[in-house]
Amino acid sequence: MEKLNISNLNYYLLILLPITIITGPALTELTVILLSAMFLYLFIIDKDKSKYNLTLIYLFIFLYLYLNISSIFSSDWYQTFSHTLIYFRYIFFTLAIYLLLLNNENFLKYFTIIFLLVYFFVIFDALIQYFTGYNIFLFALTNNRLSGVFRDELILGSYLAKFFPFVLSLYLYIFYKKNIRFDKFLIFLIFILSFLLTFLSGERSAFILIIISQFLFIFFIFKINFLKLFFIFFILVSTIFVFLLFDNTLKQRMIDHTFNQVFYKVHQDENVVCNDDVKDCYYKFRLYSISHQGHIQSSLKMFLDKPIIGQGVKMFRIKCNEEKFISNAGCSTHPHNIFFQILAELGIIGVFFYLIFYVYIFGKFFKNYILYKKNHSNLIIFQNGLFVFFIINLFPFLPAGDIFNNYNSIKIYLPLGFLIYTLYKEKNEYIR
Fold first, then answer.
1. What would the pLDDT profile of 164-174 be if each residue is shown by its tens digit?
2. Cα angle value 18/23/28 (rounded, 5°)
């Protein structure tokens, strides 16, 4: 009875997780800790340990051990160790999700409903804020940009772009029926509104990610014909054009400001500053903004200083003030790029773990795509959608948040539990 009660509590905690994600890190962190602790208890009393023999889990256990060992060599070992020591909670959190699905998949329906409702709530709340200046909680625009339920944090676009593949995958797995018009309409609505609100948020990196994510879904999962693809493309482009036509602030940020960052004027004489009156200036291309370039330069200097094990978790924010690492962009809490953060803080060994994980995910995705490309079962669709989720959230070429903070860790470890379960189900029950 005790085991049953704890399991039921875990179900409720996980079902409520989509709500806690949009409320801030405190409730989300508490949920992760409780789920981890209760999983550990259930694992100890579980006599059958064979179902926990999983490649990805071993990989993350080795990563966890490395994080703690490397913290010893950090210049501020206490600061680093205080973060790495409690990092195991995400491993147990992943296993808790896997175990819950293994014991009772029925709760996934309620989890999907809650996540869909929360996701659409975030979208419509942001639409209200866009047209009125305030959302339903009377939160105003932040620096003339959409923030919605996230108040002064400009992460609305990031939330929509990065959770889009997860939400859509859940819906396709639990509810999707090919011949029902409502399903097709709802999928179309998720596509259009996610795309539109990500664009209206003014988050350019998030906008690129939503484009990549939706392209991957269309190409690998839906496999729609050219005519339908052209229709979707026409709708999206037309919608963007209309908003740019009537919203000059949005146009300046998404078009003008982006162009000026990507293409900037220089003169052959480095001492000459290009302006409208200066001749013989030409455009040069740069992938990142000046500030992002500065942070990347700092991270590279840190890597070269300690190339094997890196500076230690959360040390970028401390080291970037040192003279030998400082850049013209000043200091920041992280390099704003996942790959360069791992390079600076965890060194070559950390990058090795990152690449192994990436190769594993890509390998599984393309293996299943080749083996089951004619199999349009909801399980395979769900699995492929989860792979898209990982690709988007661990995309190495665009600015991103701190990979070790609560919000970004959730986006990695939450779908991992679902992925492990689908691989288990594919191997043992579903695919023959």
1. 999 999 998 88
2. 60
For the chain, the straight-line distance linking the first and the last C-alpha, in angstroms and rounded, comes to 36
CA 114 to chain centre: 19
The verdict on residue 50 lying in a domain is: no
Residue with tokens 């060194």: 347
- pLDDT at position 369 over 80: no
How much is the pTM? 0.85
Structure tokens at 175: 């509810």
Segments in 46-106 forming alpha helices (H): 55-71, 77-84, 88-103
Strands 263-267 and 281-285: antiparallel
Flag whether 170 is in a domain.
Answer: yes
Partners of 283 in the beta sheet? 265
Per DSSP, the three-state class of 314 is: coil
- Among 78-92, 114-128, 165-179, 241-255, top mean pLDDT goes to 114-128
Is there a single domain that holds both residue 331 and residue 380? yes
φ/ψ (deg, to 5) at 263: -115, 115
Q: Which two tokens stand for residue 236?
A: 């999206």
Rounded Cα–Cα distance for residues 87 and 84 (Å): 5
Residue 232 lies in a domain: yes
| Residue 217 lies in domain | 105-239
Instruction: Calculate the CA 262 to chain-centre distance.
Output: 24
Q: Kindly state whether residue 268 falls inside one of the protein's structural domains.
A: yes
Choose between 110 and 426: higher pLDDT.
110
DSSP string, 224-292: --HHHHHHHHHHHHHHHHHHHHH-HHHHIIIIIIHHHHHEEEEESSTTPPP-TT--SEEEEE-SS-HHH
Cβ-based neighbours of 326, under 8 Å, separated by 6 or more:
298, 320
CA distance 309 to 349: 6
The residues that bridge with 142 in the sheet, in sequence order, are 145
Q: Whole-angstrom Cα distance, residue 212 to residue 161?
A: 9
Chain segment 280-332, per-residue pLDDT in tens = 777 776 666 677 778 888 899 999 999 999 998 989 888 888 888 887 777 88
